[in-house]
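assembly run, all chains below
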Amino acid sequence: MFFNFTDNRSDINNVFHWIAPYRLFGALLTFLCGVTLSFEPALAGNGRDKSIVPRDKSNPLSNVWSGYYYSSKELQALQMNGLENPGLKSVKEGAALWTKAVGPKNKSCAKCHGKAPLSMGEAGARYPVYHAPLKRMINLEQRINLCRTDFQEAKRLDYESDELLALSAFVRAQAKFRPVRVKVDGFAREFFEKGKAFYYQRRGQLDMSCASCHETNYGKQLRSTLLSQGQANGFPAYRVAWQKLGSLHRRFQGCNKLVRAKPYALGAENYVNLELYLNWRGNGLEVETPAVRD
Amino acid sequence: MNFINKNNILVRFFDRDIVRVFAVLTVIVSAQLFVLPILEVHSVESAKKTDKKPTSKLVEYEIFNLIQSKSIPKSLTGVKGSPKRGEALMIDPQKGNCLQCHALDFFHEKAKKNPNVYGGMGEIGPTLDGVATRYKESQLRLILVNAKLVFPETIMPAYYRVEGLTRVGEAYKGEPIMTAQEIEDILSFLVQLK
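ok done. output:
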């Protein structure tokens, strides 16, 4: 070796000794830069190729992964493709419905809310929310229907109808790549606890809870499918099994039928509470609507 | 730090991207200059010290579960089960559907010929190879009938049980997943796995 920096006899040649008096200052500087960088979104995980740390300490998951992580490479590519993602068809329909005037007052969504990217940016990331007049939680689909009946005075849309799917997917897609941040304190607390109880309740002839698969066994093979953490951040999502876009509640019904339980109605209060609880488990994951899943 | 020049164009000195680049560079450089010397990461001798792992003189040993004492010694029907029917029930998604969670080498060979029926095995439960050496027939019968009596937290459904279930679907109400004879059929197949 020509240069030996650890040689005690030639301290004057050691670069580290020159800045020895400024060590503490440097450490502070490094710390501050680190704090600054921790706000850099590109370095934080997004749940797709790098897991995120749960935002709440009481979250039973130690690493939070989006369903994207557990899908096949082909479906991942399809979801990220801005042209070929099959769910985008509904989002485009939703964009047309956003400006379409309906009802006797000839009001469109845009008449009150203006441009969706500006007004709806956070809505998709924070629903379900507490609705005081009904004294319960409402999700995005129910909010859209409330708007229709209360302000547009138009007919309410059926849950899982193409129109409502298109509108809810369009609104939620405005929050794409923003972190999910549902609130579970205050009025929502009661419904959060109900959703949690629903999650851990065993049901059906097979006597399984949501946790049986999606908490204790995620990442394992269930015959030919890989079990995910059951996150809600990609919904409304395009499912290959459905060959179309579908809502989260349709997925809930499918899960309930798989364990041979009697499913609840779409938009049922139990399902909205579960939706709140699931979104809380995935707080911090990015909204991926319209996601592509198998 | 921004200013407007002669041609009325806003000149931005501290663009956000530039700040980011400098922040990254500062972290790397200052970590090298200030923090690493404090931690003595560069010292070869300290690295050598940490490399030494304490070696144990104890002999390696495996821990086995205690044999479960609960069991159903008597046959449910009194009729001897058929292993051939049991094998068919194991891959039937409406009946036993064992491969959903368990793997078994016996089916791996069949999967090469007929992947649509036998292909894809779960990894949620333990493999079924040699299950008859781990449990007696009477214990396996109880695990099939109601595994929760042996392993309370298990995901495995109780195959012969109708009570104590929540919100069972209309089509399945009051019926066990498999009949008593079907349990005996599967059991006669499992007993062969030694």
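The two ends of chain B are 79 Å apart (CA to CA).

Helices of chain B lie at 16-39, 44-51, 83-91, 105-113, 115-118, 131-134, 137-145, 180-190.

not gonna interpret more than that til we talk
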